[in-house]
Amino acid sequence: MAITLKTSYFSANSPNHVEFHEQSLIELIENGQIGQIIHQSDPDYQKTLTAAQTTDQLITIAPGHYLLPGFIDLHNHAPQWPQAGIALDRPLNDWLNHYTFPLEARFADLDYATAVYRDLVHTLLTNGTTSALYFGSIHNNANLKLAEICAQLGQRAFIGTVVMDNPEQTPANYRDVNSATALSKTRTFIQAIQNQHPDQLVQPVITPRFIPSCQTETLTQLGRLAQETQLRVQTHCSQSTWEHQYVLDRFGQTDSVVLQQFGLLNQHAVLAHATQLTTADQQLIKTEQAAIAHCPLSNAYFGNGVFPTKQLLDQQLKIGLGTDIAGGYSPSLYTNLQTAVTASQMRQDGVDARLPADSRGVADSRITTEEAFYLATAGGAASLAINAGQIKLGMLADFQIVQAAPQFTTLTPADQLTHLLFNHTAQQIKAVYVNGQLVHQKEQNWYDNAQ
Ligand SMILES: [Zn+2]
Known about the structure:
Elements: E1 3-14, E2 17-28, E3 34-38, H1 45-54, E4 58-60, E5 65-69, E6 71-77, H2 92-105, H3 110-126, E7 129-135, H4 140-153, E8 156-160, E9 162-163, H5 179-196, E10 202-208, H6 216-229, E11 232-237, H7 241-251, H8 255-261, E12 269-273, H9 279-288, E13 291-294, H10 296-302, H11 309-314, E14 318-321, H12 333-349, H13 369-384, E15 399-403, H14 413-422, E16 429-434, E17 437-441
Helix pairs in contact: 3-4, 4-5, 5-6, 8-9, 12-13
Residues 75, 77, 236, 272, 324, 327 line the site of zinc ion.
């Protein structure tokens, strides 16, 4: 029997439009989707409410709580979770070589991987993240364990076994032996995920780490595999001054052009960071319908520039938000959407007050809270081409129920959303649903069936 939630909710249909409805009836049907939504103004409202009460399938969300779409983390390195917040004051290549690669190498140990991944996936769910696009490590066994844990805990996950085989840019104890090994490992991983997760709650992603860490033959072969399988691709793109220049030096072209030439830039691709894009790169990404995972916290440390979120949203590129664990220290997309707003403001105003005010920043760069909310929800869903990220008929029932912080004044719905998003802690995320199933519950006081 279908469950009906009686709740107030926010949902972003577009970057510029967030819907708010009070005390609507949202029916969850057995295939994990939203079966129907009845608003208070609907003539069938009372009849539907009475029917749900009679069959004892009504869950009335307690006053002061709101339902939001689950957040979608578009860029997360699962094996980097143990070093969240560590060495962020080092340059990117130093951070990779001295901290990140040695840590990821430890995931050859399946017990270690199991302990870390259980904690990470649980932490993300408690922060309202219902879907995540993960980079694993180079180890298939550990990556399959991550997939198993996501399925057990009920998180929608897109996982890649990381390919990195360039001896000049990867350490001897943490690299794929050669192109052939990297390709066969990827094929094996794809097959295993598809066999073990036929319900597609977990799906495989082709994952060249980034151009510097892959040999040319490997990029060629992965591009052919992407063409053959039509699977999603994830990689880093024009992430920092060093990385962007490395690709220019090696290929004489930017990341975006090189990825496109290898068949790795298409409508199934998610490119992380992209802070160093040229105008031509931006146009190419739009034309190819690839998506960008904007990681504002990580960019503050490693991006060497502020991502032009507003400009690219206005050009209708596909953009979502990523934590970039552990290039960003926080597992929370709340923290990242707050930072997205803050960073866009700094891009607009500039950072050096010795320059004249009108030439210090980039005009029209500021994004609104609504736009940041869109990025964390519907923008991420569009980037992954999944039927989620909005509270809407036929969408997957992936959402979070959040208690508002104490209020001492009357707020408009728009201000209520901003207050909710900026005054949040994980303590206030009371319940999380994925596919219509309750996968996390903080305590049981978020609903009141006496009403
Ligand atoms: Zn990354």
